[in-house]
UniProtKB/TrEMBL annotation:
HAMAP family (alphabetical): Endonuclease_5
Subcellular location: Cytoplasm, Stress granule; Nucleus, Nucleolus
Basic and acidic residues bias spans: 236-249
Gene3D superfamilies tied to this protein: archaeoglobus fulgidus dsm 4304 superfamily
Protein name: Endonuclease V
Sequence segments annotated as region (Disordered): 236-262
Annotated source species: Rousettus aegyptiacus (Egyptian fruit bat)
Length: 262
DNA sequence: GCGACAG
DNA sequence: ATCTTGTCGC
């Protein structure tokens, strides 16, 4: 297979990135700031955004940066922007935001400028929030840069602060009985960094939800749960996952998935 | 043995 | 992330 152009990072880049994470981390707000977040039915929440970068098969450079906005609570597609981009930074664990973040921030800002009435009130981000080696994952990054509430939704446990995907953890997963069941991810420091969430009755593998920005963990988990028809919450799942959608011109609208029950 | 490591 | 072989785990 063709070796990808994954150039080594210039010396000192990681130090700069760490410094930037530390600076931006000081701006994270890890509590509810919006009225709808405290409402049991999320009354007042009308639009939920989902952000993701999906790759072209066998290529670690060409990718599609996409933003989907769904109505709430019906989860119908209001807007979708999918733009082909060339990723420059390599993937370095703990620094995902520096690879994918800029394109996703762009997508949000384009929408806010051109169609502000469709702007999301909260962002679901594929990756972690404060559940991160330095407490500042890609979801925090997007939240701070857009000043929107954001939530990190990861599909795998990032082993940080003593958290381990070990036998005990797997046993806790096994004990999650029904959709909506959770257990806290408590780091060695005693802080609850996130929650493992069984997002659906028929889903064995949990989601790892953590605060990104301007939202409490409790509200974040509740919202993710309420956005799940299947394992992956709709705003993130709606992102193009097959090559067919990647070939679409930017800004084109896609049909919603068939709705189960209004 | 050579480990963990979101996407 | 994607592809892929394989079949336990500390």
């Amino acid at each position: 297979m063709a070796r990808e152009a994954v150039r080594r990072l210039p010396e000192g880049t990681l130090s700069l990135w760490k410094r930037e994470q530390a600076v931006l981390k000081a701006r994270v707000v890890d509590r509810d700031t919006e009225a709808w977040q405290r409402d049991p039915a999320f009354s007042g929440l009308l639009r939920v955004g989902g952000l993701d970068v999906s790759f072209v098969k066998g290529d670690s450079v060409s990718a599609c940066a996409s933003l989907v906005v769904l109505s709430y609570p019906k989860l119908e597609v209001l807007y979708e922007d999918c733009r082909m981009v060339s990723l420059t930074a390599p993937y370095v664990p703990g620094f995902l935001a520096f690879r994918e973040g800029p394109f996703l921030v762009d997508a949000v800002q384009r929408l806010q400028e051109k169609e502000p009435h469709l702007s999301p009130q909260v962002l679901l981000v594929d990756g972690n929030g404060v559940l991160h080696p330095r407490g500042f994952g890609v979801a925090c990054h997007l939240g701070v840069h857009t000043d929107l509430p954001s939530i990190g939704v990861a599909k795998k446990l990032l082993q940080v602060d003593g958290l381990e995907n070990n036998a005990l953890h797997k046993e806790k997963i096994r004990l999650l009985q029904a959709g909506g069941d959770t257990f806290p991810l408590t780091g060695g420091s005693g802080a609850v960094l996130g929650m493992a969430l069984r997002s659906h009755d028929h889903s064995t593998k949990p989601l790892y939800v953590s605060v990104g920005h301007k939202m409490s963990l409790e509200a974040a988990v509740r919202l993710v749960r309420s956005c799940c028809r299947f394992r992956i919450p709709e705003p993130v799942r709606q992102e193009p996952e097959s090559t067919e959608t990647k070939d679409m011109p930017p800004g084109r609208l896609r049909r919603a998935h068939p709705q189960s029950r209004p």
